[in-house]
Give the backbone structure.
Amino acid sequence: MHAGGRGGRGGRGGRGGGGSGGSGGSGGSGTGFGGRGSGRLPDQAQQEADQLRNLLPDPVQALAARMQPSPSVTGTSARAQLEAVMRPQREAAERAQAAERGLEANRVLDAGRADARDAELRAAREAQAKLQRAEAARLAERARANQAAADHSAALSEANAARAEAEQAKQRAAEQELAFARDAQATESRGQHESDR
């Protein structure tokens, strides 16, 4: 019997079909991983490779699907080769995710700082407004006190003026009364003098 024919060329990411056998024999089935394949990986190794590839992001899966291990490698070395291919892509994806998390953390931090600045400005404005209200109240109280003092001073001045005017009126009345008495006495003296004549 002749040996089985060589496996057909697999499509991108697919498995190659088996060749037709020689006289009296059946063709071998090709299971090339991605690309052009003529060997066959063990089923368990193929499943593990697929599982590892499925853990990667979609762009890395596509890259891993296009990579083809050597036809002569064993399952363990195939996993190692696939891991070597996937590791840089996985690390790059992890670095990209870490960078995105760092950017998000910076955005959150910047937002927190902006909120803190806004709170400080609001507190400063409120404190300034409170001081201004207190100063306005103090000035208003001083104005009321000054007005009260002025009113009291004016009232006192008016009272003093009224008392002075009353004293002057009393003095004028006394002077007039004294003048009347003098006139009456003078008149009486003249009458007495004429009577004596």
Remarks:
- The mean pLDDT is 74.
- Helices lie at 43-54, 58-66, 75-196.
- The CA atoms of residues 98 and 104 lie 10 Å apart.
